[in-house]
Amino acid sequence: MDMWKYFAITHKDHTVMNPMSLAKTKEMVDLLRLAEGDHILDVACGKAEFLCLLAERYAVLGTGVDASPYTIAEARAKVGTRGLSQRIELLHMDGAAYEPTEPPIFTMTSCIGGSWIYEGHKGALEALAKMTKPGGLVLVGEPYWKQDPTHEYVKMVDLEREQHGTHESNVKTGVELGLAFLYAAVSNEDDWDRYEGLQWQAAERYAELHPADLDTKELLDKVHTSRDAYLRWGRDCLGWAMYLFRKP
């Protein structure tokens, strides 16, 4: 099954495509204290909700990059509906391949839940920092282990223990790269339950409405495996946070 189709189906009901509540996302937006004319880059921007919130809160410009043909289409529709097309540019491409013509040009860069395109948390911070002006902000959203995962859990969800660090190590990684750590917004169990539960519901609804789709069995198999792993281990084991840093 095409990866982007899978994510489009399972995240159909999500406003933000990560385990952070919309309320906490808006709180993070308020904390950024951006200035008029600032230019923001959001890599793996999803449906562009974060960029829209920034543009509505501040008089800023935004560039969003996303590789999914499904979510970039939703992002463009959303930006148009909210009257932000003149201030938000959306690019359909691999975020890791994006390079601004005159780096560093952005007042803030972000990658919320897409560090895998940079081969991990450290790679994402390094890439974003290069595109950020001195004194600018770097924001990432990243999972972390709340406790050591069992072998059965990581095998079931096809993960490696080394793919994620701890909450502490996620902060230290940025500090060791020379970034100043400013703030972390952390998801709680309610945030996670909503993020996961909306995926289960969306997949079941899609399967019911599209019985002739040959991808339906694989879709449900993957969702059921993910659901079972979350309920048995993930809810207690895996955390999520948005980490805010400042570039010197």
What's the quick description here?
With 248 residues, the protein is an alpha/beta fold.
Q: How many strands in all?
A: 7
- Strand pairing plus helix content: what structural class? alpha/beta
Output the radius of gyration.
Answer: 18 Å
Number of discrete domains: 1
- The CATH class: Alpha Beta
**CATH topology name:** Rossmann fold
Shape: globular
Helix content: 40-55%
User: Quick check: average pLDDT?
Assistant: 96
Helices and strands in order, then pairings?
Layout: H1 3-10, H2 22-31, E1 39-43, H3 49-57, E2 61-66, H4 69-81, E3 88-92, E4 106-112, H5 121-130, E5 132-145, H6 151-156, H7 167-176, E6 180-186, H8 189-209, H9 216-237, E7 238-246
Parallel strand pairs: 1-2, 1-4, 2-3, 4-5
Antiparallel strand pairs: 5-7, 6-7
Describe this structure in words.
With 248 residues, this protein is an alpha/beta fold. The chain has one domain (14-188, 238-246): Rossmann fold. 44% of the residues lie in helices and 21% in strands. The chain is built from nine helices and seven strands; from the N terminus they run ααβαβαββαβααβααβ. The chain has a seven-stranded mixed β-sheet with strand order 3-2-1-4-5-7-6, sandwiched between helices. Helix 2 (22-31) crosses helix 3 (49-57) and helix 8 runs antiparallel to helix 9 (216-237). The longest helix is centred in the C-terminal third of the chain and has 22 residues, at 216-237.
Task: List key phrases describing it.
9 helices, alpha/beta, seven-stranded mixed β-sheet, 248 residues, Rossmann fold, single chain
